[in-house]
Amino acid sequence: MTVQISFTLNGRPTTVDVEPASLVAELLREQLHLTGTHIGCDTSQCGACVVHLDGLPVKSCTLLAPALDGATLLTIEGLQGAPGSNLMHPMQEAFREHHGLQCGFCTPGMLMTAVALAAEKPDLTEADVRHGLEGNICRCTGYQNIVVSVLAGAAAMNAAKGD
Fold first, then answer.
1. d(CA 150, CA 123)
2. Would you state the pLDDT for residue 163?
3. Is 36:75 a contact under the CB 8 Å cutoff?
4. What would you report as the CA-atom Rg of the chain, rounded to the nearest whole angstrom?
5. How far is C-alpha 27 from the chain's CA centre?
6. Which of 57, 64, 54, 62 is nearest to 109 (CA)?
7. What is the DSSP string of 83-139?
8. CA distance 73 to 153
9. What are the pLDDT digits (tens) for 111-146?
10. How many CB atoms lie within 10 A of CB 40?
C-alpha cells in the first residue's frame, strides 16, 4: 500500500506515491534520483544525509517520507547562488576556496548543516561552528578546513544579504 504525498522539492511542486515506512533519504535517492543526499550510517550519527525541511536541517535517513506532505524540502541539488545565475551558493564557494572537503562524501550534509548554522546565527564563531557540526562526521579532513570554510561561507552569506 502506498500513500500519495505532495510537497515542494527544491522550489518545485512534487507529488509522489511512497510506502508509509519509506525514509526521505530512500525517496530522494531511489525514487527521485537525487543522489547528492548521502547515506552513511542509517542511524542519524554521521550527518551525510542532512536536508532542510521547512527551513530546518534534518537527517533524512531517519525521517519517514510521508512527513514531507505539505512541506518544503531543500536538498544539496537545490542549493544555489543568486536566483537566475549559474553561481554556487556562497557556502559551496567557501568550501571550494578553503579546501573544506577531501573525498566529498560528507560534503552535502556538511554544506546543508553549515548553511542552516549561518542562517540561524550570522556572526558565527569557531566554537559555534565546531558545536554546530557535532552531528556531522568527516573521516578525511580533520575539520580545520571545514571550520574555516563555514566561517568564510557565513561571512559571504552575510555580505550577499547586504547587496
1. 11
2. 59
3. yes
4. 16
5. 15
6. 57
7. TTS-PPPHHHHHHHHTT--SS-SSHHHHHHHHHHHHHH-SS--HHHHHHHTTT---S
8. 21
9. 999 999 999 998 999 999 999 999 999 988 789 999
10. 18
pLDDT tens digits in sequence order for the chain, 163 residues long: 999 999 999 999 999 999 999 999 999 999 999 999 999 987 889 999 999 999 999 999 999 999 999 999 999 999 988 777 788 999 999 999 999 988 999 999 999 999 999 999 989 999 999 999 999 999 887 899 999 999 999 999 999 887 5
SS (H, E, C) 24-71: HHHHHHHHCCCCCCCCCCCCCCCCCCEEEECCEEEECCCCEHHHHCCC
The residue written with cell numbers 554556487 in the block is 88
CA distance 27 to 108: 17
Place of cell 533519504: 25
Instruction: State the amino acid at position 76 in one-letter form.
Output: I
Contact 87, 20 (CB under 8 A): no
Give the pairing type, strands 12-18 and 3-9.
antiparallel
Phi, psi of 58 (to 5 degrees): -140, 155
**CA–CA distance, 131 with 148 (Å, rounded to integer):** 14
- Report the distance separating Cα 128 and Cα 75, nearest Å: 23
